[in-house]
Design goal:
mainly alpha, about 75% helix, extended
């Protein structure tokens, strides 16, 4: 009776299967006609997009891609140069990241000069010539800026006023406060507020010894440069975060591969 009770409470043992008789069936890779169709469709869309971009780059001139190329270039170069100026007062880590991911000030100036030279060769815009001369003067090529301005003789009233601005800003001749006041008024009517206006106005005030106006211009420049840096800092932090995250994932894959585990299968 006791043996029967014990046998009832026990779970019967199943016969152990021989490991050699169990066949491991590896799962077949998933295959579907719809997945192939979607892959082919995505590849076709990608190739069509690349072909369209290539066709536009080869057939449409650069300046015809913009409705107002001069204004577009002014905004782009102005923001780029303001960002470069603001880096002088930025934290060290931001300067290091900018040096690693962006062009430095000299490279940015050369690029902007080359863009304006291409614009002038196509449109012969007097305001573009003025901006080119300002870029040359602010990048340390005062003689080239003056040579550029000397070619504006007998080109009309606006060209003559542009020439006077460049000569007064970058020539070695003395500049009185009265002359500087007149030139500042001309400059205010010639250029909109921005990098080109700020630098030329500051140069005129410095040449004439107008310290009050120079201080005001520098304060306004610092405010705008700080605003540009506030836009750039989140982008830099995002770049560093993505770089760190990708590096951690790559190191993890390398460690697993070293242990003989293929995590990509």
């Amino acid at each position: 009776m006791n043996d029967q009770a014990l046998s009832i409470g026990q779970i019967p043992r199943l016969p152990e299967a021989d490991g050699s008789t169990v066949s491991e069936v590896s799962p077949l890779p998933y295959s579907s006609r719809w997945s192939r169709f979607v892959s082919v469709l995505c590849a076709g869309v990608l190739l069509a997009s690349l072909a369209g971009i290539l066709w536009l780059s080869l057939t449409v001139p650069k300046l015809q891609r913009f409705e107002e190329p001069g204004r577009a270039l002014d905004l782009m170069v102005g923001r780029m140069m303001e960002a470069q100026d603001g880096l002088h007062r930025a934290p060290k880590w931001q300067q290091w990241v900018a040096e690693w991911t962006m062009d430095n000030e000299e490279q940015a100036s050369r690029q902007a000069i080359r863009w304006y030279q291409e614009l002038i060769a196509t449109t012969d815009d007097p305001s573009a010539k003025l901006r080119l001369a300002i870029l040359l003067g602010e990048s340390g090529h005062e003689s080239k800026a003056l040579a550029e301005a000397q070619g504006w003789h007998d080109r009309g009233t606006s060209a003559e006023s542009f020439r006077q601005l460049i000569v007064a800003a970058y020539d070695a001749a003395p500049l009185s406060l009265e002359q500087e006041t007149q030139l500042q008024a001309t400059l205010a009517e010639t250029l909109p507020i921005g990098w080109f206006y700020d630098h030329l106005a500051a140069r005129l005030a410095q040449r004439a010894g107008d310290h009050a106006l120079l201080t005001t211009i520098n304060l306004q420049r610092q405010m705008k440069e700080e605003q540009v840096q506030r836009w750039i800092r989140p982008l830099m932090i995002s770049e560093l975060t993505c770089l760190a995250f990708g590096s951690v994932i790559l190191l993890g894959i390398v460690r697993l591969k070293g242990r003989g585990l293929n995590v990509l299968q």
